[in-house]
From TrEMBL:
It catalyses: L-homoserine + NADP(+) = L-aspartate 4-semialdehyde + NADPH + H(+); L-homoserine + NAD(+) = L-aspartate 4-semialdehyde + NADH + H(+). This is Homoserine dehydrogenase. Pfam families: ACT, Homoserine_dh, NAD_binding_3. PROSITE patterns: ACT, HOMOSER_DHGENASE. InterPro entries: ACT-like_dom_sf, ACT_dom, Asp/hSer_DH_NAD-bd, HDH, HDH_cat, HDH_CS, NAD(P)-bd_dom_sf. GO terms for biological process: methionine biosynthetic process; threonine biosynthetic process. Its cofactor is a metal cation. L-homoserine binds at E191. GO terms for molecular function: homoserine dehydrogenase activity; NADP binding. Catalyzes the conversion of L-aspartate-beta-semialdehyde (L-Asa) to L-homoserine (L-Hse), the third step in the biosynthesis of threonine and methionine from aspartate. Belongs to the homoserine dehydrogenase family.
Length: 442
């Protein structure tokens, strides 16, 4: 029997996520109320345009254009409008007025997270954001709560569905980047301006959130090294297949030792990478997301599922709503952020990983030896070399004039690798550095 007063819920935004949150909450309100031990009363849904088309039917009397009045009368505010302003201002108002806040807004958290968490702590309110990374996939709670007693070493995440869809088409359907992007746009995965996805901005925001949680350290989005997928070619994807890899856009968050100071630090980066075809992340197809976590005691864990979609993301928002509402009813310490470790954020030059470098070279005696010398001069250890001879010219005089070398390295620092690649590019025996890709997950 429910004896607690009804909790008042304000929803800000009725776009693809907001409309589904409202619709599911109205549909399953009684069941959720039983889980919470209090009625959940939607006091209103703030929208800019009362007549805009919605993906779910919402009673018109719940729609309102005055977000501030709704916020001031609410126990719990759900922000699913996106963007920085006015979302930031509304969340600040909600928190300072004592409401708990649930948000799916990764851009806001990655840029203004620390100040919002500070306000929440000051007033004793809670800020929940399971839906901000990986859509429906539970990853925030596992990192914050389930793994709170462990030590996370590394996270490898496929956290952008659009780029995964594009790279997967290039891998499995033989598309070029342009063809795959056109298909992603047609299906509604990519926006008309696909920059946020394909240049890695969306993934970098998610990497900042994951790294902050995993390493108990504030990681701002500016501290995340970012490279998108615009330069990935079909040739690279085919070459990767031949050597037993797939190309994925990865968010890599690592705790590592700074080679300059010998002290622990955090690296967060987003870039295309080769992963072994047998790695669990290689089996993440289409627009799905997955986050692979390596922790000291737990070992390897993978969280997989739909990383976007209105209804799927609404599932994560409603999970947060039940948690927030239960805290009103039964109390509890809430979900304070922990940034006690305060580790330094290391630049990409401090990272060490493995690389695969593809070179077009002249095919004549001594070339391999000269190239091997360049690697060794920079302390980069070669693990494997594959050569294929490229024949150019025609007719009877045809002779082999060039070769393609695919060189895999052992672990090396970005700094040493960059110096090696610069020397390779300037070497008289190298016609072209065709591709340099990091290798992760080995
Ligand atoms: N545009 C994102 C993606 C979904 O493609 O995964 C929202 O974060």
């Amino acid at each position: 029997m429910i004896e607690y007063r009804n909790l008042k819920i304000a929803i800000l935004g009725a776009g693809s996520v907001g409309a589904q949150v409202a619709s599911l909450l109205l549909e399953h309100g009684e069941e959720l109320a039983n889980r919470v031990g209090a009625g959940l009363e939607v006091v209103g849904i703030a929208v800019r345009d009362l007549d805009a088309p919605r993906t779910a039917e919402i009673p018109r009397e719940l729609l309102a254009t005055d977000a501030r009045s709704l916020i001031l009368g609410a126990d719990i505010v759900i922000e699913v409008m996106g963007g920085i302003e006015p979302a930031r201002e509304y969340l600040e108002l909600a928190l300072t007025s004592g409401a708990d806040v649930i948000t799916a807004n990764k851009a806001l958290l990655a840029t203004h997270g620390p100040e919002l968490f500070a306000i929440a702590e000051q007033v004793g309110a809670q800020l929940y954001y399971e839906a901000a990374v990986g859509g429906a996939i539970p990853i925030i709670r596992p990192l914050r709560d389930s793994l709170a007693g462990d030590r996370v070493h590394r996270i490898l995440g496929i956290v952008n569905g659009t780029t995964n869809y594009i790279l997967d088409r290039m891998d499995r359907d033989g598309d070029t980047l342009e063809q795959a992007l056109a298909a992603a746009t047609e299906l509604g995965y990519a926006e008309a301006d696909p920059t946020a996805d394909i240049d890695g901005f969306d993934a970098a925001q998610k990497a900042a959130i994951l790294a902050s949680l995993a390493f108990h350290t504030t990681v701002a989005v500016d501290g995340v090294h970012r490279e998108g997928i615009r330069t990935v070619t079909r040739d690279q994807v085919v070459a990767a297949q031949r050597s037993g890899f797939v190309v994925k856009l990865l968010a890599v968050c690592e705790r590592l030792v700074d080679p300059e100071t010998g002290r622990d630090g955090v690296s967060a980066r987003v870039h295309p990478a080769l992963i072994p075809a047998g790695h669990p992340l290689a089996a993440v197809h289409g627009a799905n997301n997955a986050v692979f976590v390596e922790a000291e005691a737990a070992g390897s864990l993978m969280f997989y599922g739909a990383g976007a979609g209105g209804r799927q993301t609404a599932s994560a928002v409603l999970g947060d709503l039940v948690s927030a509402a239960r805290r009103h009813v039964v109390g509890g310490p809430g979900v304070a952020e922990s940034t006690h470790a305060d580790l330094p954020i290391l630049p990409i030059s401090s990272v060490s990983t493995r690389y695969q470098i593809t070179l077009s070279v002249l095919d004549r005696p001594g070339v391999l030896a000269q190239i091997a010398t360049l690697f060794s001069e920079h302390g980069v250890s070669v693990e494997a070399v594959q050569q294929s001879v490229v024949t150019v010219g025609g007719g009877e005089d045809e002779e082999s004039a060039g070769a393609t070398l695919v060189i895999g390295t052992h672990r090396a620092t970005e700094k040493a690798l960059a110096a090696t690649v610069a020397d390779l590019a300037g070497s008289p025996v190298v016609a072209r550095v065709e591709s340099v890709l990091r290798v992760e997950g080995l």
